[in-house]
Amino acid sequence: MAGPCIICVAITGSLPTKANNPAVPISLSEQIESTQQAFEAGASIAHCHVRDDDGLPTSDPERFARLKEGLETHCPGLIIQFSTGGRSGAGQARGGMLPLRPDMASLSVGSNNFPTRVYENPPDLVDWLAGEMLMYDIKPEIEAFDLSHIIQATRMQADARLKGPLYVQFVMGVKNAMPADERILDFYIETLQRLAPDASWCAAGIGPQQIVLNEWAIRKGGHTRTGMEDNVRIDRETLAPSNAALVRRAVELCERYERPVATWQQAREILRLPMPG
Predict the structure, then answer these.
(1) Can you state the angle between helices 61-74 and 28-41, rounded to 10 degrees?
(2) Do residues 45 and 7 lie in contact, with contact meaning Cβ atoms separated by under 8 Å?
(3) Where is the signal peptide (predicted)?
């Protein structure tokens, strides 16, 4: 039997709106409440974005600070992961919240196509973000949208731009990027294990591929991500009532494949993160 499975919940993202699903948490209070429910359902990492007063994505450090404070109060032990993604800001503004020292932050180490735009991650910005994470002792979650991103992350670890062991998330199902293909996932896993034997991995699927990647990752011994950032539905006809409902679906898959769901303590141990307090 594989070890405990870490479940990450991506609670809000930059794109979903209440027009897509009224349960999408937009305000800080909604995000805190939704995350607490997901935490109690079994999530041990919260991947966090913030929105402005109009519900638009922002990298405002003050809003991240208020979210972090609320999550630390209501979800003690939860691993807080900030997004440095490109939809919330440009250039170094994408890392303006890193001095708040979250436990983790997402890091995309290369560019790729998104549905309607190029997701730009130029090398100088990637190096700057990685340097900020080293400075503030933040563990990166490498978001790999392409095989080259996996290889680049291992190079960055080899030359000390990233501190190991790596934690790499394979993102599949984004239109115009890597499709959800199980043979490709297997090659991703083999490549990461060959180039960075001490690395851990996670997988995330977008839209209807979310449950597909949840199952593949759990069955193959990895960790997994769910939540309304990636998918607002339980199935084609049914909107997800909450982030917690999507977490519970991943928990059920863990039970099916006899994978214990990682507690926040186990998740911190797996990821070599300090215990709070």
Answers:
(1) 40
(2) yes
(3) none
Rg value, the chain, Cα = 17
Name the percent of the chain lying above pLDDT 70: 100
CATH superfamily, region 7-271: Aldolase class I (3.20.20.70)
Cα–Cα dist 113/127, whole Å: 20
Contact 79, 271 (CB under 8 A): yes
DSSP 163: P
Residue 121 has which token pair? 């991650």
DSSP-based three-state secondary structure for 177? coil
pLDDT attached to residue 1:
60
Domain boundaries, the chain: 7-271
What's the rounded Cα separation, in Å, for the pair 132 and 126? 10
Q: Contact at 8 Å (CB) between 210 and 230?
A: yes
Beta strands 45-48 and 79-82, pairing class: parallel
C-alpha 143: how far from chain center: 8
Q: Could you report the per-residue pLDDT of 151-207, keeping only the tens digit for each? A: 999 999 999 999 999 999 999 999 999 999 999 999 999 999 999 999 999 999 999
Residue-wise pLDDT for 231-254, tens only, equals 999 999 999 999 999 999 999 999
Q: If we measure between CA atoms, which residue out of 107, 226, 213 comes closest to residue 167?
A: 107
